[in-house]
């Protein structure tokens, strides 16, 4: 099964922002997106990517439809699944600010280590996602 650890490939191509370098993303076995497309007789170059771009004025909306493939399907032995809903994804850039302090000269009460704050945020977010998934995944 081909599984490229990347998101929004089709959407980025339609928006005209997919870099040619994305074609070199590989799956676990080393197959690139470009190789996979070649196997289905689709030659993709930078010029082809630009031809895929839609004029924003000609599009009211866009939903990328795909066959769901993933570790759960692989685990249960199903080759593919039918999607009944979509998940919106958001990427955020988060900055944790603080300052390190030398263990020998700065008491714990005076430290403001951003890594400790980041670790707490990661654990909290994972916990919230796990609680939420109990209510939405069947």
Automatic annotation (TrEMBL):
Q: What top-tier enzyme class does this entry carry?
A: hydrolase
Q: Which residues form the signal peptide?
A: 1-22
Enumerate the InterPro entries for this protein: Amidase_Cbmase (IPR010158), Bact_exopeptidase_dim_dom (IPR036264)
Keywords tagged on the record: Hydrolase, Metal-binding, Signal
EC number, UniProt record: 3.5.3.9
Please provide, alphabetically and separated by semicolons, the GO molecular function terms listed in this UniProt record: allantoate deiminase activity; metal ion binding
What protein name applies here?
A: Putative allantoate deiminase
């Amino acid at each position: 099964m081909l599984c490229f650890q990347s998101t929004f490939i089709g959407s980025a191509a339609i928006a005209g922002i997919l870099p040619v370098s994305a074609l070199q993303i590989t799956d676990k076995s080393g197959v690139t997106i470009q190789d996979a497309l070649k196997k289905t007789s689709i030659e993709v170059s930078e010029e082809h990517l630009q031809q895929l771009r839609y004029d924003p004025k000609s599009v009211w909306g866009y939903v990328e439809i795909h066959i769901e493939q993933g570790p759960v399907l692989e685990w249960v032995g199903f080759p593919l699944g039918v999607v009944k809903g979509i998940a919106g994804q958001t990427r955020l850039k988060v900055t944790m600010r603080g300052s390190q302090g030398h263990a020998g000269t700065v008491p714990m009460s005076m430290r403001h280590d951003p890594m400790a704050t980041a670790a707490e945020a990661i654990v909290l977010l994972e916990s919230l996602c796990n609680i939420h998934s109990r209510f939405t995944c069947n």
